Amino acid sequence: MSTSILPPGAVSPQDVAVAPAMPDIMAQKQTRKGVLGYLLRHPTIAIGGFLLLLMLAIAVFAPYLWTKDPTALAPAMRTRDPSARFWFGTDMLGRDVYSRVLYGTRVSLQVGFGVAFFASIIGLAIGLVSGFVRWADSIIMRVMDGIMSIPSILLAIALMALTRGSVGNVILAITIAEIPRVSRLVRGVVLSLREQPYVDAAIASGTRTPVIIWRHILPNTLAPMTVQATYICASAMIAEAILSFIGAGTPPIIPSWGNIMAEGRALWQVKPYIVFFPAVFLSITVLAVNLLGDGLRDSLDPRAAKRV
């Protein structure tokens, strides 16, 4: 058996054969470590994301989770206590509360995501124009101040009084009340960004205003706007439940958590489960969105990243 002595710096044939596989293995380990490390550094994102995905799964697969028709009436089965047949009991009209609560997840998430999306898009456009175009700032902000002077829930009630009850109208009413939040946030970010040297350089070079906003201003507003959208989503779900609870939201035939609680408040002392179960689902969903928003805020904040 002969032993070959390699000169310094030389690579043996065995090392050459093993070398190509090493970067792939290291890259896979680094990727796994990065995702796991990110979730460990931000547990609120992991918890909130898991709970929100669970609620989304319930909303999507509600017909397959041993539910019944949420609108089917059964007067002979009214106000039955929770049992093996009716897991959450029945209401005063004999409808299965379990089925109504699970289908109510669809309404709440639809309103929350819809309001967050439309309020973010419209508020982003208004905030960009108001923050960058100086002559339009005072006009736009006075309109936003006028809207914000009215409590959002009262404004939503007033808008719903002018229309008929439906999920679309609820989304529209809450969106109008939430737009000033996003627009003022984006405006504040734009006011600080437009004084940066790179923006002055773009203006001096003759770059058009829409291009400056698209390339230099808009990307820096997405992080705070994303965090704000999560809080708007949570508040929109609460607002929808309040509107439905007082009879100014979705029609009673639609199984929403607010409607279920409104129908069970008359029997609260003797049949508390009618109000308890939708309230628990609403609390968990709002908690999930708020946890996700808090985690995104800490993750996207460069000062918090440095502390970690």
TrEMBL record:
Q: Which UniProt keywords apply?
A: Cell membrane, Membrane, Transmembrane, Transmembrane helix, Transport
One of its GO biological process terms is:
transmembrane transport
Compartments where located: Cell membrane
Primary localization: membrane
Domain ABC transmembrane type-1 residue range list: 109-293
Q: Which InterPro entries match?
A: BP-dependent_transpt_permease, MetI-like, MetI-like_sf, OppC_N
Q: Which SUPFAM superfamilies match?
A: MetI-like (SSF161098)
Write out the transmembrane intervals. 45-66, 111-133, 153-177, 229-254, 274-293
The cross-references to CDD domains, in alphabetical order and at most eight, read: TM_PBP2
Instruction: Please tell me one Gene Ontology term that the record gives under cellular component.
Output: plasma membrane
**What's its membrane topology?**
Multi-pass membrane protein
Which domain of life does the UniProt lineage start with?
Bacteria
Pfam families to which the protein is assigned, alphabetical? BPD_transp_1, OppC_N
Q: Which family does it belong to?
A: Belongs to the binding-protein-dependent transport system permease family.
Name of the protein in its database record = ABC transporter, permease protein
Q: Which organism is it from?
A: Pseudoroseomonas cervicalis ATCC 49957
